[in-house]
Amino acid sequence: MNGPFVTIDGNEAAARIAHACSEIVAIYPITPASPMGELADGWSQAGRVNLWGDVPEVIEMQSEGGAAGALHGALQAGALGSTFTASQGLLLMIPNLYKIAGELTPTVIHVAARSIATHALSIFGDHSDVMACRQTGAALLASGSVQEAQDLALIAHAATLRTRVPFLHFFDGFRTSHEVAKIAVVDEATIGEMIDDDLVAAHRDRGLNPNRPVLRGTAQNPDVFFQAREACNPFHDAVPAAVQGEMDRFAELTGRQYRLFDYWGAPDAEHVVILMGSGVGTTREAVEAEVAAGAKVGVLAVRLYRPFSAAALVSALPESVRRIAVLDRTKEPGSVGEPLYTDVVAALAEHLGADAPEVVGGRFGLSSKEYTPAMALAVLDNLATPAPRNHFTVGIVDDVGLTSLEVDPDRWHEPDDVVRAVFYGLGSDGTVGANKNSVKIIGDLTDRYAQGYFVYDSKKSGSTTVSHLRTAPAPIESAYLVEEASFVACHQFGFLDRVDVLAVAGHRATFLLNSPYGPEEVWDRLPRQVQQQIIDKGLDLRVIDAAAVARDAGLGGRVNTVLQTCFFLLAGVLEPEAAIAAIKRAIEASYAKRGQVVLQRNFAAVDAAVANVHRVEVPNEASSAIELREPVPAEAPDFVQRVTSLMLAGHGDRLPVSALPVDGTFPTGTARWEKRAIATEIPVWDPDICIDCGRCALICPHAAIRMKVFDAASAVGAPAGFKYKDWKSDGDASEVMTIQVAPDDCTGCGVCVSICPAKSKEDVSHKSIDMMPVGDHVDEERRNWDFFSALPEADR
Amino acid sequence: MNGPFVTIDGNEAAARIAHACSEIVAIYPITPASPMGELADGWSQAGRVNLWGDVPEVIEMQSEGGAAGALHGALQAGALGSTFTASQGLLLMIPNLYKIAGELTPTVIHVAARSIATHALSIFGDHSDVMACRQTGAALLASGSVQEAQDLALIAHAATLRTRVPFLHFFDGFRTSHEVAKIAVVDEATIGEMIDDDLVAAHRDRGLNPNRPVLRGTAQNPDVFFQAREACNPFHDAVPAAVQGEMDRFAELTGRQYRLFDYWGAPDAEHVVILMGSGVGTTREAVEAEVAAGAKVGVLAVRLYRPFSAAALVSALPESVRRIAVLDRTKEPGSVGEPLYTDVVAALAEHLGADAPEVVGGRFGLSSKEYTPAMALAVLDNLATPAPRNHFTVGIVDDVGLTSLEVDPDRWHEPDDVVRAVFYGLGSDGTVGANKNSVKIIGDLTDRYAQGYFVYDSKKSGSTTVSHLRTAPAPIESAYLVEEASFVACHQFGFLDRVDVLAVAGHRATFLLNSPYGPEEVWDRLPRQVQQQIIDKGLDLRVIDAAAVARDAGLGGRVNTVLQTCFFLLAGVLEPEAAIAAIKRAIEASYAKRGQVVLQRNFAAVDAAVANVHRVEVPNEASSAIELREPVPAEAPDFVQRVTSLMLAGHGDRLPVSALPVDGTFPTGTARWEKRAIATEIPVWDPDICIDCGRCALICPHAAIRMKVFDAASAVGAPAGFKYKDWKSDGDASEVMTIQVAPDDCTGCGVCVSICPAKSKEDVSHKSIDMMPVGDHVDEERRNWDFFSALPEADR
């Protein structure tokens, strides 16, 4: 692949093309497409110009219906327009889409494809939204990677002008939209070459204009509607060849050749998988490994899904194909089969009749469900059975309809030349940002390719984040989470007893642990199961007290430079010296404008990190008395034990179909069983200066501070440190009051402290409610809370 | 078929069931579904109760999006709900439809299926709207006639409760929604039997209720969404058997048996047509005629389109089938094929593999384009060719893509036992209302079946209406316009020189002409071409001066009773005496409450009509000097000559694909070439009392009155009757003023008269602008207008 290269995500890759090719961008935000609109808006705010030297007007409407209407209007006026959307947002555009297509109006809507809400909403990726538009007359062009999100975005903008058919250019929400990857960038000149000015002029000339009036948007009656509806046929018929033409022109300009249907695999393949989107690269990995082992298999990527060229499909398939598995990343209950499957069956039946290969269809990857090479192998294995299963699922366990293919995770191992790193952090702790930065450093400052993908849970701030980084000498097609990581980093020591951070670690991987305990002391602080994993996998355990190093370097609590240095030092991406040099260059680029002091502190942190990361001698036996915490207590109800607890522990993928409600109806009151214990500091109450105002309990956004008035007699049997004070009331003098904190529900946000009006006279910085680090006293606080919970309130 | 019978349209048939089975009906009007909402609203206003003795709450929202949201909310609260919609209205419900289906919530949305706006809007019928919902998870149940619109509506309400899957029950907009037909009515007891109270109770128990809280409408992440999405499978899988179960129960209760796929034709058929909706009955007529002639053909009606039971499809088809034509009433540009076609191909490929019959697909009936038995025969003929055409169209001439099948209209003649009547009237002249009444009279007061269908043009008031009536001893399945009418009535004499009213007349048909000219005089008043048609077809020409008869009977201008009587007397529906008795009974039912005087006047009109309708002796030769008027003048531009003129003349159906713009873009300013000449009275100006205020020209909503000031010298050469008067101005004393009327643009609305302030002193009822009947002076007015148009305005 030829450079120059940039390291960006799929949204930015597509949005940059759209911004360059548009005069009007009508937007309305929806996850995961929002960044496209935000970027376009930001670029226009900053004065970035389009191909014609003008700053595109970016207008935010009040819904996607409005965005589609504004776009339609702008196009009718002869402007070049585009928009970005997903999921329900795209559904609201459907009425306009029929009109825009029916009026043969060029535009591109870039879609970060996302599930449509059914039994539950989901912000994650699959093709159910674009599939709901396949009947509108718009062309559908699928990208499967960040590189393609850029390249096919441009091909879409070129082809829509050529054909007058509007394009939906889509790529998988999150998996592609939010993957950060190093891609060969299309320069402005190439964009300009692809956009034919004569076609732009022709579009303008068709715009509604009082100087050359035409009538559009009329009502037609049964006498002529049908004929008029057929009059557009030549335009749709011409799209496949036109798109291939633009692909060929693009290849001449950039060296990257795309086809309507791209095939990889054995030229004499008998079994072929057909799919589109980010699953293509993953399937390619599996197919290429199988072909290398002598198997006659292949994979066909659908790029232009509408208009669907049956002839191009047939000619892209090897003649030797006997069986085909079509994978759909959508579900249409009650259909004969999912859409790509039925389309392939019909296309082959038309062109090959009784000689058509046998076709089976399956669903995969709904709502960003993982799709791995091992699953692709399961799909190929199914084709090799005497009677392949049809209407299967892959990636889940369906113990109800028995649709799921069995997947053997041991069938696949990631290639050795790929460095695979996984980082566990806390939402807002900077881990994700640092890792995005690391990907950029590798991408921008080395010859290697790099990929970053980031898994958040929906609780956002304060929840676990898992960063998946790959870097390799060749472009990375793996659109799935890292497996068998060669480097695992846990940035939060507190995760160890409740998150299975080492499940992803490969044999002999490096495990970097941010630990307040030094190399001598840390082993005994690990839960027994973690010790066992380290021993069993032969991990190279390294510890650093990143907080201490950062503090000593004058960086306060900002540990990212320290941990990032450790990653570069230990992960084997670069030689240590080169790694240190690269990270310092990156620091210079980031912080130079903040002045020499900041720069020097960061450099010092790098050097201190190198000096302070220590190897831990790993004993032969797991000896710890510390056990993993159960995700929910034993007294939780059955549903919480069976279902919620697995989701909380990050093992929701293991839940079979039977575990989930059929209609999205869940029991209530289950959140109380989730004890996140994410606070690093929790409030501690000083009854001596408390003025009984109760504001702390009132304001706590997590309901983790409670106040209770009770009879002093009830305090008999209280834990040793259980605090309470006299209650000034008109009532019984025997009443006392306590304020207690639920240490596992508190997030450490500190709002209680900020509102507490009771200050110590001696030290006004000390309040009645004040934060203290969660240390060993947490168990004491738990005991206090349990006692408090059971305490009967005073009768009044 | 067992009675009792009612004579209603498809909208009423469906709405009645929905109202009886609902507690909440959330509505928003859209053609052609609006009457369902209006009826439900009216019934609830009038206190009509549902099955449980409650008056359903009908709430009109601010869009279909709101209606769907209100419905969704009501259902979640455990209420029984439904709504009515079509076209873009249904598109706005898509997001909620995914949710309602995903949450397994029973409801029925009744859809008067209508085209979606593309290159142009259309209010007419096809399946593009329901097809845009086929991926949502809702069940789709298709009715093909008014009878079915009632019966399957009930089956849908029963089945949705049984299955928890929401239903879209749809029927063809206008063709079924607005067809008035005699149907066997389902009584309240049967409705009650079909709705299982236990299932209703179960639905209520699932409703959100604070007393037994559950959580619904959550967000799910990649860990569990896919599994949860598959958890609904058993519910969708169970739908086909459940629907068949409800159909069987319905058959036990009513004797009318429906199946998921209903087959008619030869048991050893080799060629079969598959379709759904109102085209089924029409195809049946063609198929049954062919089978009677020994052909091995059949037709399969799809009733339950989603969930699509491939097994039921295969078992409904004769094993002998070798070739299938699937007809889709929708168009999806860029698809492999239209949806029913691809579904059938995939279903057969799965079940029969290489033994699957050959399948071709075609489009028909878009936007209520006529679909006739002759077209069905063309589809069967195509199957009989060595290489049947695929992706064809039928019902149009596609001279661009050459997709269209050739249709031989002579291949089909309507059966002799069907009385077929066609009536030409003017919008708002009462013709349509009278014909609806005639259908009801036949349906309610005789043993015969009857059907009425009404074609309006979009100009509504003041435009041509064509009423198509059939009556026969057996139920009528013909869902197409009357061909070879046995009775043609022209209620407006003025139509004869511009509307081809006799094109539809069959050989030896009766032609009733409402004529101001008596039987002796009328012949010479007919255009030559009309005379020739009467002679060539051997028509039985009858005339009546309905206006005179009505006036004499004291009915003022209301001619309906008179013309209706002539129809009953002449059309051969009943024996004359029985017909007169029937119409009098109907009058009694309609007018009894208006008192004896009104009743007697109507009775008198009936008797006078019988006495005053006269047979006209038809000469052997067409001798008239009157020629048909050209629809547009010779100086109109090319597009107007080639395209607009055919549409104006009612021959838009003849326009080939090449005549229509590819993207809905029309030239402007073409309305000026349409000279409707519909006024029966036009304003005439009296300059002697005119006060020059100009209000008449200002107010005219059709811009048909103009005022002009010009030099008196310019009046040289004016037509004899061209009037003008002195112009009181400060300027040149030689200036004069005229007010002229464009007689062919005037609609005779009389607004000009109402605003004219200039009254004659002698007779204050005489104004300067006053209406006069359009008589022979119209040619004089035309000459005046032409002179006026060319007259140069005074230079000022």
Q: Key terms for this structure?
A:
homodimer; nine-stranded mixed β-sheet; 796 residues; seven-stranded mixed β-sheet; alpha/beta; 25 helices
Total beta strands of chain A: 28
Class from helix and strand fractions of chain A? alpha/beta
Binned, the helix content of chain A reads 25-40%
Largest interface between protein chains, with number of residues from each side: A-B, 123 and 123 residues
Oligomer: homodimer
Word description of this protein:
2 copies of one chain form a homodimer. The first copy, chain A, is of the alpha/beta class. Helix content of chain A is 35%, strand content 19%. Chain A has 25 helices and 28 strands. In chain A, the strands form 5 sheets. The first copy, chain A, has a 9-stranded mixed beta sheet with strand order 1-8-18-19-17-20-21-22-23, sandwiched between helices. A 7-stranded mixed beta sheet of chain A has the order 3-2-4-5-7-6-13, sandwiched between helices. Chain A has a 6-stranded mixed beta sheet with strand order 10-12-11-14-15-16, sandwiched between helices. In chain A, helix 18 (546-552) runs antiparallel to helix 21 (596-612). The first copy, chain A, is globular. At the A-B interface, helix 4, strand 9, helix 9, helix 10 and helix 14 of A face helix 4, helix 9, helix 10, helix 14 and strand 14 of B. Strand 9 of chain A pairs antiparallel with strand 23 of chain B, so a sheet runs across the interface.
